[in-house]
Amino acid sequence: VKFKGGKLPSSIGGLIHLRFLSLDEARVSHLPSTMRNLKLLLYLNLDVAYGEPVHVPNVLKEMLELRYLYLPWLMHDKTKLDLGDLVNLEELWYFSTQHSSVTDLLRMTKLRSLNVSLSGRCTFETLSSSLRQLRNLETLYLDFRYKTYKSYVGELDLDFIHLKELVLTVRMSKIPDQHQFPPHLAHISLFFCRMEEDPMPILERLLHLKSVELRLEAFVGRKMLCSKGGFPQLCALEISEELELEEWIVEEGS
């Protein structure tokens, strides 16, 4: 739907029994404060795909029943959202430390899927201490592309016992050691990492991996080696836009 002036009508607040609301690709630029009345929402998708920053009033904190929350990819710089009381959330997408406090995550112990963008003054230590409480995570997207640190993933605790899917958009000179990854990790995707060391010797030792994705200058080295006996369960491998890669050796039995 294309709303007049890009504004969701304030009358949406009258639908007080609403459980499900999706504005996916609705091209909305302003959300009304009357949305605070939608206290029974279980599912809220605000991924409006507008292309411009979205004005989101601080009303989500009152939707205590929410299980699934999809925030806009772009929000106005001054947007501040209190999300710490949303303790029933199971999926949270596009959480940004620019617009919410990273400590809001501490109480979301039911989270199974989380997409978090690190920006502003938030440190990796602070983020790591908050993530440590989320022991039920199965899917984790970490987007640090706007940070300038060369290698800091080692500072993050990624050892989530239930984690199956990990996506890292983060600058790092080399991939973390094998023991720093979740023990049952099945899918890993790496973007914009600009790793100088070949990640394959580490990745091929993660015995449960079923898919690996290296895209958009994840690796800036010239040579990649997949050795014999590595990747015992791998079903899918995608390597794209690795402009420096010249030689890829796959040993028999890999």
UniProtKB/TrEMBL annotation:
Residues 11-240 form the Disease resistance R13L4/SHOC-2-like LRR domain. It comes from the Eukaryota. Keywords: Repeat. Coiled coil: none annotated. This is Disease resistance protein RPP8. It comes from Arabidopsis lyrata subsp. petraea. The gene is RPP8.
